[in-house]
Amino acid sequence: RYQAESRRLLGVLDAQLAGRDYVVGDAFSMADIDAIATCDFLGWIRTSIPDDCRNVKRWREAMSQRPGTRA
Question: pTM, whole model, 2 decimals?
Answer without folding.
Answer: 0.88
